[in-house]
């Protein structure tokens, strides 16, 4: 009976830590949406701005969504400032499902900036000479992004489990009635 209770408790703990498709988890000011192959962790600054990370399988990126129009495919300079990192980034304007997102790189610098502190800010240089400035809360960012990256890593492991480790070589089929080119022609000498 104790074994059954231990197994049930183990199952509940595993189920509590496992993301089901379409699961939405709130970590203070951040939300993580887990749907299997595509997952996202984000925060909203105001109705027109958001900042987050998106993963498709094991490939992840950070994005910024602001209300200004950018040219799809164009790259912009952006200054990022948080408690742990102040640096210049590159941002590429990318349309996704009719909405313009600015993809931030390098990924590692943005990840580091989200791990410590209360807030993060971005200043984007506009063509007019002005800056578009956005600030976002980091309250809940670390656990939300950690969960996102765990899901991304586990998607790779799930993919590897589905791919057979050993595949037999393809069978070599020789069609019938095909002359054997390695065979020597018959000899004209007769021997007894």
Describe the protein:
The protein is α+β, with helices and mostly antiparallel strands and 192 residues long. The chain has one domain: Immunoglobulin-like, CATH 2.60.40.1880. It is built from three helices and ten strands, in the order H-E-E-E-E-E-E-E-E-H-E-E-H. The protein has helices at residues 2-17, 107-114, 141-162, and strands at residues 23-27, 30-34, 38-46, 49-56, 59-65, 75-82, 86-96, 99-105, 119-125, 131-137. The protein has a ten-stranded antiparallel sheet, covered by helices on one side. Strand 4 (49-56) and strand 5 form a beta hairpin. It is globular, with a radius of gyration of 28 Å.
Output the keywords:
Immunoglobulin-like, alpha+beta, 192 residues, ten-stranded antiparallel β-sheet
